[in-house]
Amino acid sequence: MTFIHIAIFLPVIAAIAIAIIYRYVKDVHLGWFVLPVPAVIAAYLFSLIPTVSTDGPIHQNLNLMPRIGMNFDVYIDGLGLLFAILISGIGALVVLYSIGYLSKEEKLGNFYVYLLIFMTAMLGIVLNDNVLMLYFFWELTSISSFLLIAFWYTRDKSIYGAQKSMLITFFGGFMMLGGFIVLYIITGTFSIREMIGNVDLIIDSNLAPFAVVLILLGAFTKSAQFPFYIWLPDAMEAPTPVSAYLHSATMVKAGLYLVARFTPVFAFSELWVWIILLGGLITLVWASFNAIKQDDLKGVLAFSTVSQLGLIMSLLGVGALAVATGANEEIFTVAVVAAVFHIINHATFKGSLFMVAGILDHETGTRSIRKLGGLLTLMPISFTMTLVTALSMAGIPPFNGFLSKELFLEAMFEISHANFSALADWSVLFPILGIVGSIFTFVYSLKLIHGVFFGDRSYDTPKEPHEAPALLLISPIILSALVIIFGLFPNILSGTIIDPAAMSILGTDTALNTQISHWHGFNNPALWATVAIIVIGGVMYIFRNSWMFIYDYHKEHFTLNYLYEQGLLYSQLGSKKATDGVMTGFFRDYMVYIFGFFVLFSIITTFFTGLPITFDDFADVGIQDMVLVIIILISLAIIMMTRSRMVSIIMLGAIGFSMALFFAFFRAPDLALTQLSIETVTTTLFLVCFYHLPKKSKHEETIKFKFTNFIISVGVGAVVILFGLSAYSNRLFESISQFHIENVYELAAGGNMVNVILVDFRGYDTLMETLVFGIAGIGIYALMKAKVKGKDDNNEEHA
Amino acid sequence: MELVTIILSGILIASATYLILSKSVLRIIIGISILSHGVHLMILTMGQLKRGNVPVLDDSVSTYTDPLPQALILTAIVISFALTSFSLILLLRNYKELGTDNTEDMKGVPHGD
Fold this sequence. Notes:
A: mainly alpha; two-stranded antiparallel sheet; disordered C terminus; B: mainly alpha; Helix Hairpins; elongated
């Protein structure tokens, strides 16, 4: 337990304090008490930057369950530190923003407790070396995200969005756990660093593809990649600070973190590179295409987040090439730098954009782009922030988005040099997808700026628009300022944060000394690509009305949402149908299952193991025995065939008394005596019941011959006979009865061996049997005496 | 003899199964009774039949039949009697409350939806 462990758990500890404060302090907004927590953590993490960038990673061990290898091993390298600073830094800004955004009437205690749990979970994910703990924190983010999305739990859409995100992210998390276990089977360790050390084992193993697919399922669901992105637009029902924090800056990047973290492990795998590269690019194009048609501000931003995450994912795919192919390392290292840089850039501009969207919602009462318009003069500060951040998102100089977009396009052009799998053959595809996605990005960024702040002043907003209070503006202003600062001076990041992070993704110790510059010269294809994006995007936006009709062809039935809905519906219907089919509610059917499976499994077992039967060592059959056998068989036949209950009861008595005679012939006088008396009482009881039973019942009307019943009962009988014969002919050792026979007088002072066994050698059986008898007596008494509600009452209740 | 009793108990259990699969509760209870007979006979057979004398100490006798299965069956007879009588009374009570002894008619009124 070190200070780093305490820092990770500080939010949860603070959450307890917050819950108490919430009860007693009503005058001050609860957020002010929460604000110091992320601020302190951020400051502490900033102080670690020089240590990590010069001395290398920090490692602190904390044993939790060493037997199964689940230890909380804190491991801070450049990548983890970058994410941790984003989480705590943006966390502080979001808390500050939420003070202005949420009024004191809301359930603030819940909100901040969930948010703090989330913060701990995210810090735990990124500052962790043990995959089991990583999984623990991973699910904790899913749970806290679920709680935050459903914060306004009285709204149906919130519940729907929360459930959807929970189902999808839990599915992915569970798959990821499977991937970790596969890795454990291969390498024998849960530590990520030791996995990287044993990468030879993973390369040789034929289980590796399973681990690749399972871990990528976890990453793709969490990071909202195609086709799992569908939960993110619905998660926009959460309060805007939550959307800004979880669904743009932090949680959705957990999947990217996972991919980056496991790049040194899996980069050799063609499957890994192809899935990430193509998955990311498809997500980029598809989501940016869909973002244009959104009407809701947060809907645009949600799809934009998805597409930007796809961009980063594809960059990580190119980065994996740098690890996999040693020769061309220089070229592909750029992609890793671009990925890390874009993670930072996206967190800044998207966080800010979400906050501005929240401000617009807060000050005008609507988020619909159709209803907003001409707010330029009314909300100049919001406009400036939107302009800066949206242009950064579109990739326009001099903002930071331009730099990472340039690096992205460069990386896409570089794939043609790849000496890996069939990538070089398909190299035309990648820059085209990248450019198309960027054009769409440019178009919706323009729509965001133009649709909200330009055009005619619209008067159908629910509230009179005016500039937001300072409390709401501080956080987005800080983020927008960072967009400009990182855009103008990108190298303040490169040496301190980006290089260590890129080094840990690449799994190398050699310093990178990255220099990010605005100008690469005219012969850089990325420059011309950017020019093309701006020109084509601009033209497309101006003539938007002439091509927007293509979205009409994108019918409801072809969306992934529709698939999800139908899948959910049919899995419910299907399971209901299956249950209804098997659980008929009839006693007979269940008995058929039980007997049927008894016969079936007995036959299968016999088939595989064999049943040795020998026909020797039998006693003689006497005439009197055969007479009894015949009596029993005749009685049985009559019971089976008669329609009269009376006859079957009498025949049952006949069987019972024959049994008593059998016992007498087989030298069991006590048994014969008991059987005789009990059979008498039983028959009497049957007759007593008979007197009270209905005059006519189905039993007397028809006894239909049922073929299935017949087959099953013949099977049961055959199995019993076979097993009985086999058991009889295979005696493994002598009976222990000789002990009882020899000691019956010496030890127990009795002559009747059966009785001595009952009350002396095995007296406990008899005690419990007496108990059974007593309980049956009490039960019968209760059944006869107990009053239940009359039939009429019952009917009324059910009606 | 053991071959005969094993087959007989097999037949008893087969018929018991057929009765248990029927719809009338009375037939099911008769089936349970017959099933217990078959099982008792099988237990007794497993201890071998007709070897030696009645298991009561007697100085003139050197071999006895196995007393242990007899003790087990004695317990089993009493327990199956308790079961039979309880289920009979249950049948009676059931008939008084529901007015039927047919298991197919004994379906609860579905709750809620």
